[in-house]
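Sample intake sheet
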Amino acid sequence: MVKRPTIPDLAKAAGVSTSTVNRVINEADTVRQQTRERVLRAAQEIGFYGLRTIEHAVNRGRETWRLGVLLQQQGRTFYRNLGEGIRRAAASHPDATVALTLQFLDDLSPDNVAARLKTLGESCESVAVVAAEHPLVSDAIDRLIDAGVPVTGLIAPLSARGNVGFVGLDNWKVGRTAAWAFDRIIREPGKIGILVGNHRYRNQELNESGFRSYFREHNAAFTLLEPLATYESAAVARELTEKLFVEHPDMCGLFVSGGGITGAVAALREARRREDFVAVGYELFDTTRNALIDGTLTMAISHPMEAFAREAIATMVKAGRAGSSAGALSVTLGFDIYTSENV
């Protein structure tokens, strides 16, 4: 018969005294919240019989934050996965109770994004959004900040008169890393096609800037074609990729810096390509994983999804505590690199 963990067992696991554990259970208000959280984590790990009592004591002392997140189309696998990650991160935030409002936008027009931001700001204490730069969006952000609601840009940096936070990648380095792959793998330099989702997404503009910067510095023998906008549409991305092969049959590579990767992959599979053709895309999900495995994609650069979701929630809570008049909080994450050998 397995012995149930006792209070001394819990105290040892949490690194506190037995009297502290007893106070968490019976007189929680006399124990610091940080210590209560530590005892709760230990109780969860060892399966302590009084777990619900400790959970109640800890939750009673936690702050509650109403957070709002606006993501893009739920039909896109990346945003659907990100949304699930953000929900998990909100539910497991270590030192606050998070009341999360998570919404997806099918209509990405600036006026709709601005209107949804305004509505979200009326019920939330801190807001995060994935959006393209536009005066209407900047104005909506400023109105929220003026009303005391801090705003954080996710994935794409955003600007306004007020301080706007950011959680995402160092996109200049993303572009240079992609360029490195083309330079090191392609045997004979040639033309490289570039797809972006929308030139108003600053992360994609920075991707392209870093991409071109690398070649200016290391190998000017490559010809970088003008970027084509997919407007985050897989159908448009497929059409543009097919057009690139018609107009530039000698193309040696394709860099998909923005939305529409599924359409680009479909076109690449049907195209006649050079033996050393390199294709670099964005994010890891079923389509890109299969494309890496069968050789359609050479490399995928991806957000670390769980870490990104955790940092998004943590940054929103910190911004809420600091207030909209404080300096913007910025978190730059390392990115994951995938090839056929590590998916």
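Comment: DSSP finds 13 helices and 13 strands in the chain. Residues 171 and 207 are 5 Å apart (CA to CA).
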